[in-house]
Amino acid sequence: MNTTSPPSPRPEREELSLNDAASHLLEECRTVIPGMQALFGFQLIAVFNQRFGEKLTPTEQELHIVAIALVAVAIAMLMAPAVLHRHTEPMAVSKRFINVSSRLLMWSMVPLVAGMCIDLFLVARLGLGNRATALFVAAALLGVFVLLWVVLPQSRALQDAFGAKSTEHEERP
């Protein structure tokens, strides 16, 4: 006769040590940086394209420069945790480092999204020839980012819709 109880379900959340939290945080930064750098490179190349000067108005060209600057700011914010760690606590990890670095990572997404939306507006304006439609396309992209980066993390119901239902309600065998 087996008197052992069924295994308890795995916890939905596990606390990390400061070291593990720092490792995860820095890995997240390293994951995002290549995409930002690629975007930045394409933004810079666009300025040298003949269509840039011919098809964009001076104001639109200035908007593109603003978008480049916004992405550069996002890259700087995303690289800041590594620099912060090297300068302040190269041989240790603190909760303060995790908090500051997490905020830098999260806030770096604001100028990134702004730069991407501005450039999408410009590309859509060139491709579609209509400012109103281009503005709609850029606003739709902004809406997607807000949905996935702001609303989804705050909404358990939306998380459940994306397949994150709790295992505690599932039947055990």
- Please count the helical segments: 6
Strand content: under 5%
Q: Mean of the pLDDT scores?
A: 84
Briefly note the structural class of the backbone.
mainly alpha
Q: Helicity, in percent?
A: over 70%
Question: What count of structural domains?
Answer: 1
Q: Oligomer, anyone?
A: single chain
Order of helices and strands: HHHHHH
- Which sheet architecture does the biggest sheet show? none
Measured distance between first and last alpha carbons: 18 Å
Number of strands: 0
Q: Characterize the overall form.
A: flat
Poorly predicted sequence stretches spanning 5 or more consecutive residues: 168-173
Supply Rg: 22 Å
Walkthrough of the structure:
With 173 residues, the chain is an all-alpha fold. The chain has one domain. Helices cover 76% and strands 0% of the residues. The chain has 6 helices and no strands. It has helices at 18-47, 50-55, 58-88, 95-128, 131-154, 156-161. α1 packs antiparallel against α3 (58-88) and α1 packs parallel to α4. The longest helix has 34 residues, at 95-128. Residues 168-173 have low confidence and may be disordered.
